[in-house]
Give the backbone structure.
Amino acid sequence: MSIAEHQGPPVLHWRNAIGDFILAFGGCEYWTHAYIRKFGPQVIHEVAAKMEITSRAALAKAIVLDKAASTELKRRIEMIFKSFSSLTKCRNLVAHNVPSFMSQQIMVGVDLKMHIVSPQKKGSLTLKALQQHVIQAETLLHDMEALYLAIRPPHPGKPKAVFSDGKSG
């Protein structure tokens, strides 16, 4: 019997939320690479691939801001990368630390806290908060794809950019 089966549904909810978040955020991280490869100069591709996440995101942002044709699109880019930066903090907590639970909390089914303790910093995250971050990361993933479509040269028959608020790029 696995730990999740032994401890019940709350641990399974955590596993699902962590997986959903990492997959959605990983997709967002993919788009930072795609922006650099598609719109940036060839000479920075290899260097950018080795950059840590916040530096690579700053480079990707600078590249797409340079390609943006309108003030509205530039505003969207600022919002997208602000959201990415905010979610990076959650990503680092989830990706680099192991959740720990108090057993009596599992038994009563309250909103469990995942306590994060590392040598450099402390933090905590509830399941409810993580589930909200999943929604934000999935929305950001959609918007980062739409941004790619909005920046790339138009191609007949290719999809147009539609952001999560329903507006076209």
Notes: Residues 1-7, 102-109 have pLDDT under 50 and may be disordered.
